[in-house]
Write a structure and sequence with these properties.
This protein is an alpha/beta fold. The protein folds into two domains: 121 residues, no CATH class; 34 residues. It contains two helices and 17 strands. The strands form three sheets. Strands 1-3-5-8-11-14-17 form a seven-stranded parallel β-sheet, with no helix packed on it. The longest helix is centred in the last third of the chain and has 31 residues.
Length: 193
């Protein structure tokens, strides 16, 4: 590469970096390993959390996405709530306007809690109070649907590996190779006089 093409590439990259403007970034909450807490008199636009949880006492104006953590909604979330490897809990009279999706966790809805559209709980459960309402479909896939086939597959792999090792060990011994020296002969027995 010549100097001109390197300079043009750097100039283009700098123009793209300075031209990018995040939307609603001043009201978004993004954390890695530190819990997001929305106070009762506060609100956030989006809440995204990796290896932590979201405790929303105040409203959330858009989406909540959490990886490896729990979500607690005390009042309202205006869009979707998506959690991977964690639980979702709605207090009494709390609401989520659109969808709830939870992978490897549980969804708990308090009294009079509402969800506007669908609830999907993959490899988890949905527990609702009698007065809670879900506006769309409720899709649940229990955890045993994933774990039992994986355990069967693991058992089959264990049997195959054990059979191959046993066969190799027999072939090794039949060929006359010994991984350890033979045991010493037993001590001679002297006749008693």
């Amino acid at each position: 590469m010549n100097l001109r093409s390197i300079l043009a590439s750097c100039s283009l990259l700098a123009a793209l970096v300075f031209a990018a403007t995040p939307a609603h970034a001043n009201r978004d909450a993004v954390q890695f390993g530190s819990k997001i807490v929305v106070g009762p008199n506060e609100s956030v636009h989006d809440a995204v959390c990796f290896f932590c949880g979201v405790d929303a006492q105040g409203p959330i104006d858009h989406d909540v996405v959490v990886f490896f953590g729990n979500v607690h909604i005390a009042r309202h979330s205006d869009h979707d709530v998506v959690v991977f490897f964690g639980n979702i809990h709605l207090d009494p009279d709390a609401s989520i306007s659109h969808d709830v999706v939870d992978f490897f966790g549980n969804v708990n809805l308090g009294e009079n809690a509402t969800i506007g559209n669908d609830v999907v709980a993959m490899f988890g459960s949905v527990r609702t109070a009698d007065s809670a309402s879900i506006g769309g479909n409720r899709v649940m896939q229990p955890a045993w649907v994933l774990w039992i086939p994986l355990m069967i597959l693991g058992g089959i792999i264990t049997l195959i590996v054990g059979a191959i090792r046993s066969h190799r060990r027999r072939m090794y011994y039949e060929a006359g190779y010994y991984p350890y020296p033979p045991p010493p002969p037993p001590p001679p027995v002297h006749p008693q006089a």
